[in-house]
Amino acid sequence: MPQLNPDPWFFTLMASWTVFLTIVSTKVLTYVKPNEPAPTSTQDYKFGSWNWPW
């Protein structure tokens, strides 16, 4: 069963994950958002109780 032989694809898999974890992740983690999210309102809302018909 040739599909169970890890020699042809294992090195490619490990090399691609190494590149992803070292280069791509550092570039993604250094990304800075242009605008930090801020709350639009600091007002507390008071909701009434529900009036259930039963």
UniProtKB/TrEMBL annotation:
<comment type="similarity">
    <text>Belongs to the ATPase protein 8 family.</text>
</comment>
<keyword id="KW-0812">Transmembrane</keyword>
<protein>
    <recommendedName>
        <fullName>ATP synthase complex subunit 8</fullName>
    </recommendedName>
</protein>
<comment type="subunit">
    <text>Component of the ATP synthase complex composed at least of ATP5F1A/subunit alpha, ATP5F1B/subunit beta, ATP5MC1/subunit c (homooctomer), MT-ATP6/subunit a, MT-ATP8/subunit 8, ATP5ME/subunit e, ATP5MF/subunit f, ATP5MG/subunit g, ATP5MK/subunit k, ATP5MJ/subunit j, ATP5F1C/subunit gamma, ATP5F1D/subunit delta, ATP5F1E/subunit epsilon, ATP5PF/subunit F6, ATP5PB/subunit b, ATP5PD/subunit d, ATP5PO/subunit OSCP.</text>
</comment>
<dbReference type="InterPro" id="IPR001421">
    <property type="entry name" value="ATP8_metazoa"/>
</dbReference>
<dbReference type="GO" id="GO:0015986">
    <property type="term" value="P:proton motive force-driven ATP synthesis"/>
</dbReference>
<dbReference type="GO" id="GO:0015078">
    <property type="term" value="F:proton transmembrane transporter activity"/>
</dbReference>
<keyword id="KW-0406">Ion transport</keyword>
<dbReference type="InterPro" id="IPR050635">
    <property type="entry name" value="ATPase_protein_8"/>
</dbReference>
<keyword id="KW-0496">Mitochondrion</keyword>
<dbReference type="GO" id="GO:0045259">
    <property type="term" value="C:proton-transporting ATP synthase complex"/>
</dbReference>
<dbReference type="GO" id="GO:0031966">
    <property type="term" value="C:mitochondrial membrane"/>
</dbReference>
<keyword id="KW-0813">Transport</keyword>
<keyword id="KW-0375">Hydrogen ion transport</keyword>
<comment type="function">
    <text>Subunit 8, of the mitochondrial membrane ATP synthase complex (F(1)F(0) ATP synthase or Complex V) that produces ATP from ADP in the presence of a proton gradient across the membrane which is generated by electron transport complexes of the respiratory chain. ATP synthase complex consist of a soluble F(1) head domain - the catalytic core - and a membrane F(1) domain - the membrane proton channel. These two domains are linked by a central stalk rotating inside the F(1) region and a stationary peripheral stalk.</text>
</comment>
<keyword id="KW-0472">Membrane</keyword>
<keyword id="KW-1133">Transmembrane helix</keyword>
<keyword id="KW-0138">CF(0)</keyword>
<dbReference type="Pfam" id="PF00895">
    <property type="entry name" value="ATP-synt_8"/>
</dbReference>
<keyword id="KW-0066">ATP synthesis</keyword>
